[in-house]
Amino acid sequence: MKHTIKPFVNASVLDQVLLLLNHDNLTVKVKNERKTRHGDYRRLPNGKHLITVNSNLNPHRFLITLIHEIAHFEAFNKYGRTIKPHGKEWKQTFQRLMLPFINPEAFPMELLPLLARHFKNPKASSDTDIHLSLALKQFDADTDKTYVFEIPIGSDFKLYNGKVFKKGNTRTKRIECVEISTGKLYLFNPNAEVELVEQ
């Protein structure tokens, strides 16, 4: 186990994380980047439990994602498989597991207030918390991508899957974007990573 996650977790919290992973039948695998998720948890047919986390995450997002998935494992074990995946049982478990990590040894000082606010009521994905997500992205490796909120209204942009959209107006929390090929309207998270299409 130590060998699997050691390169991805800050040394200051590694032992603390390994204590959480000290469960029978719990396996963690680090996967290549998946565009639609940072990690996941599954109960396998043989009774074992598998957590996967993307390898491209910076150490802070990796830790949050790993604890997020451990919370799924613990919540399902305690409350059963009929609970909502991101319902109150999972939220309470995630809060309890994350609380010991919300300190300067685990995270940079500038992230601590954002984490404290986020974990008052954690969401299904930290990406939906715009302020926390943007703060976490500053620790990512440099990329040629930009964010939807940064591009001008009326500009075209492309997603990783090649689909092209035109940016529209901003609603309260989302940005209206029209898919060029279909004319369908989609609502984008403002910090979605995209590639600007030169006109």
Sheet-strand content, in percent, reads 15-25%
Question: Mind describing the biggest β-sheet?
Answer: 6 strands, antiparallel
Gross morphology is: globular
Rg, alpha carbons = 18 Å
Give the overall pLDDT as a whole number. Answer: 88
Strand order of the largest sheet: 4-9-5-6-7-8
Q: What structural class do the secondary elements suggest?
A: alpha+beta
Q: What is the string of helix and strand elements?
A: HHEEEHHHHEEEEEE
Helix percent band: 25-40%
The tally of beta strands, per DSSP, is 9
User: Would you identify the regions where 5 or more consecutive residues have pLDDT less than 50?
Assistant: none
**Number of helical segments with 4 or more residues:** 6
Number of domains as seen in the coordinates: 2
N- to C-terminal distance: 49 Å
Which tags fit this structure?
six-stranded antiparallel beta sheet; single chain; 2 domains; three-stranded mixed beta sheet; globular; alpha+beta; SH3 type barrels; 199 residues
